[in-house]
């Protein structure tokens, strides 16, 4: 990577850290004058009411530095993505499109049956590529449900994170006439929540979700399997595929339907991000290796399906 680009990345990261410090100081400054006012008043002194204007200045500073930090982080993410992450991706796959600050189409996410319902979201690192002949997309996602509080303050608002992790979509070479859904038993979230989605209704997975046992005790103890028919499930869930899925980490929700394999991995991680452990000494190899390891985790999922089923052959 060009030395000037590398220096620019490190300088932008330092600036983001400075803005974060200013934001924290501004937040503390909002309350400091009130504390000082109470201490002075307790000792019998009086302060001019103009002191109470100081918090307003700190409030303005807090929002200003927050806004600046957000924009600079996006700039840093874009620069790091295009010049570091993209090169790492190119080592293992053919990159059709990569957007560091982009994510999978929101309308599709609302209709994706393996994701929970949500009304607020953000995401990053949209990847569209081809790996070992398999065309796929990837995104980091955070899906939330936000509720507004009542005007009288009796009922406070809430912000619940329903999903934080990755969504991988792979286009298979063969069309599946029906659906197979595989859900981890670690959480009953997907059973208790209403599935979002036109897609699930089209496939019949809301009205005809037939539970299915594979006969593999270890697999059946870890996963719930639903299918439009048992014969389809038997054809898709080969012993090799079940063994491969057992070797993956993270809370997984999987749907195989039509010519698409969708894998949602809830692991509370955000991949391809700068960590606080990174060094600002001009050596970016630490980050490259981190991104290579994270990419390997993504490609491992694709390999499980590509190498253990005939869907991609």
Automatic annotation (TrEMBL):
InterPro entries: DUF3137. This is DUF3137 domain-containing protein. The chain crosses the membrane at residues 21-39, 51-68. It holds the Pfam family DUF3137. Keywords: Membrane, Transmembrane, Transmembrane helix. It comes from the Bacteria. It comes from Coprococcus eutactus.
């Amino acid at each position: 990577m060009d030395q000037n680009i590398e220096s620019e990345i490190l300088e932008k990261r330092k600036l983001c850290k400075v803005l974060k410090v200013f934001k924290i100081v501004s937040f503390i400054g909002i309350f400091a004058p009130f504390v000082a006012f109470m201490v002075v008043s307790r000792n019998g002194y009086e302060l001019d009411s103009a002191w109470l204007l100081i918090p307003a200045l700190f409030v303005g500073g807090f929002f200003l530095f927050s806004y600046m930090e957000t924009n600079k982080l996006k700039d840093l993410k874009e620069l790091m993505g295009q010049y570091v992450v993209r090169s790492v991706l190119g080592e293992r796959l053919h990159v059709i499109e990569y957007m560091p600050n982009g994510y999978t189409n929101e309308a599709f996410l609302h209709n994706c049956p393996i994701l929970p319902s949500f009304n607020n979201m953000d995401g990053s690192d949209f990847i569209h590529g081809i790996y070992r002949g398999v065309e796929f997309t990837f995104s980091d996602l955070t899906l939330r449900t936000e509720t507004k509080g009542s005007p009288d303050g009796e009922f406070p608002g809430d912000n619940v994170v329903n999903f934080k992790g990755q969504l991988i979509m792979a286009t298979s070479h063969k069309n599946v006439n029906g659906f197979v859904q595989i859900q981890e038993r670690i959480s009953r979230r997907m059973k208790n929540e209403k599935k979002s989605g036109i897609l699930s209704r089209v496939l019949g997975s809301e009205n005809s979700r037939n539970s299915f046992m594979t006969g593999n005790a270890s697999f059946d103890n870890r996963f719930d399997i639903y299918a439009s028919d048992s014969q389809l499930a038997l054809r898709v869930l080969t012993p090799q595929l079940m063994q491969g899925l057992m070797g993956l980490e993270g809370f997984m929700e999987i749907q195989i339907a039509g010519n698409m394999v969708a894998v949602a991995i809830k692991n509370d991680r955000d991949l391809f991000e700068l960590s606080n452990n990174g060094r600002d000494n001009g050596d970016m190899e630490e980050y490259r290796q981190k991104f290579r390891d994270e990419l390997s985790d993504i490609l491992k999922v694709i390999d499980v399906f590509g190498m253990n089923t005939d869907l991609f052959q």
